[in-house]
Design a protein that fits this description.
The complex is a heterodimer of chains A (142) and B (167).
Chain A: H1 3-14, H2 18-22, H3 25-30, E1 33-34, E2 40-43, E3 50-52, E4 57-58, H4 60-78, E5 86-94, E6 103-112, E7 116-124, E8 131-140
Chain B: H1 5-18, H2 23-27, E1 29-35, E2 38-43, E3 50-52, E4 57-58, H3 60-76, E5 87-94, E6 104-113, E7 117-125, E8 134-141, H4 149-164
Antiparallel strand pairs in B: 1-2, 2-6, 3-4, 5-8, 6-7, 7-8
Helix pairs in contact in B: 1-4
The chains are: A alpha+beta (142), B alpha+beta (167).
Chain lengths: 142, 167
Amino acid sequence: MSRIAELVHRAQESGDWSECIEAIPYARLIGIKLGSEAGEFCLPPKASNIGNPTLPALHGGALGGFMEMSAILHLMMSMEVLKVPKVVDFSIDYLRPGHYKDTYARCEIVRFGRKLVNVGIDCWQDDAENLVARARAQFLIE
Amino acid sequence: MAVDLDEVRKMCELLMVANQGDHFHALGIKVTDIQRGSVTMELGYSDDIVGNPETGVIHGGVITALLDSCCGFSASTVLEELALTPTIDLRIDHLGPAEPHKPIYAVGEVYRLSRYVIFTRAVAHQGDKNRPVAQAVGNFSRMEKGTFSEFRDAMLAAYDKLIGGKS
């Protein structure tokens, strides 16, 4: 079993995903955390995610990366036999500026096929009704 | 009148270099060329941006940030005056994994400028532009003229203060 698969397996049993998130450098870099419900994730304010310091606003790429990372973690948490999902395509609509504050993502697996998985990701800050961004992604699982 | 490309260069430099510790800095992204309608960028490989620790392949989100910036800065080169261009939407196709330990180059271009929207696309490659590792298409908002006048003045003043004296 690969190291990641081992960490995911252990996390699935213990419910503690911190070790698994720590093992992914990009997840550590942006500072993603687990949210309060399954499929939910949080991105606390971190200076290295700022794109425009004059506002300050989060970098659009940091928001997109957070949403993509959320989808990958959600998939890894949902799978019985772990395979690291590979992103095939990712599409994001930016709806409001991402301010420098707590940011949340909620993932929904739209279809779990044999090879391809489609995930929808909603992202908000103060109010889950007022989305900051909405994305969809297709992953290859092999 | 078209925007002064030197002002665009200053904006890129200020957003990417002067703010040690922001997202560009954390990812290691820099602008290498600015033309009317096209910006070229470079992303150096580092262990911090890896998405799969077993293969060393960098995370897709890093490519998203690179191509978003590359399309966005390309968009700002076709305006009449220096301004920011908020991203409306962006789609990234990951055509293949990026080879670890090698830089990634991004080339963005504006293919249509309309009254309210700037239509752009970009490719990310590792030396052969005809074999991209990813490509993107992104639309950016063309804000009303004058929206960013204050931003422009503040930006150029900040540039002179932080970088101007050194270059």
